What does this fold into?
Amino acid sequence: MRLVILGPPGSGKGTRAKIIGRIFGYPVVTTGAMLREAVAAGTEYGKIAEGYMKKGELVRDDVVIGIVEERLRKPDVEEGFILDGFPRSVNQARALDRILNKMGAILDVVMYVTAKPETILSRLSLRRSCPKCGAIYHLKDILPKVEGVCDECGSKLVQRDDDKEAIILHRLEVYEQQTFPILERYERLGKVREVSGELKIDEIPGEVERVLKGL
It folds into this structure.
């Protein structure tokens, strides 16, 4: 199964990606992880990306696409993968089609996670992140074992600047502008399966199994 998961920031798409990966046994591939892996491996695209990341700038589109292609050549994704955070534009969606075509593969499904703006605001404003390993926590729903400390690597958790209310509202506007055209494109191809981002975490496995059954 080759799956793309889309949804606004805070909708719970990352949580669903991990659950789907655990249930079906496919690797979860995220944009952030791909960038970090490419930088650590010192690939040509990784070296270019590192320059942007050190300055806190968005990595160029062609570099992100190149890094995705490098990642999808690895043997662990030959049987399938779950893409979280890519594509984020129609240009990237077209690039993904080209990458899959080279692999002799097709995209099976696009899972679209929906959630109310007030739910997203609550989730993101209470979210805390590990700046080192990228692990995500929530002050209400996903608490670390030690307050303010990452379970995975022991780093101090932080609230990202883009998890503050004014920035969240802006991110949602940008998301609508950039991502709805991708969603419309995949809907025309009959690829989209919509799921609710309002569910409790223990309700998610049953929903994703129902939606993805038979793929």
